[in-house]
Amino acid sequence: MTALSLHDENVRFATTRGVSEHNRTANFVPGYLDSTSGEWVLSRFRDGSPAPVHVLDGLPPTWVARRDAAGNVVQTRPGIVSGFVRDGLFYTREEAMLALC
Predict the structure, then answer these.
(1) Which of 14, 16, 71, 95 is the S-S candidate for 91 at Cβ 3.0 to 4.6 Å?
(2) Is residue 101 scored above 70 in pLDDT?
(3) Long-range contacts of 18-23 (CB under 8 A, 24+ apart)
């Protein structure tokens, strides 16, 4: 996953509840899933504070494949999926969209 692929996902789901803007009122919080381990984390800024949208800089270091010279996350390792967390459960963008239909 990269910033560009996140942007592409946001464009693809722009008019649905698969983006933060349209599902926040249903208590969905942006997050990521490591599909290999099943572990999920909330989206966070680099300083650790919660992010209201998907950002890569606050991911656990072991989830990061590459950073730029400034230390920004450029790419995650394979198997990291963006989605949402609600009531302790991870939802893919598609699942969040369907959960709110």
Answers:
(1) 95
(2) no
(3) 18/93, 18/94, 18/96, 18/97, 19/93, 20/52, 20/53, 20/54, 20/84, 23/84, 23/96, 23/97, 23/100
Query: What is the Cα–Cα distance from 9 to 13, expressed in whole angstroms?
Result: 6
Count of other CB atoms within 10 angstroms of residue 61? 7
- The single residue listed with the structure tokens 């464009």 is 11
Q: What is the pTM of this model?
A: 0.94
What pLDDT shows up at residue 87?
A: 96
* In the block, residue with structure tokens 């381990």: 37
pLDDT at residue 21 in the model: 93
Q: What letter represents residue 83's amino acid? A: G
User: Which ranges constitute the DSSP H helices of 1-101?
Assistant: 3-12, 20-23, 93-99
Q: What is the structure's pLDDT at 46?
A: 95
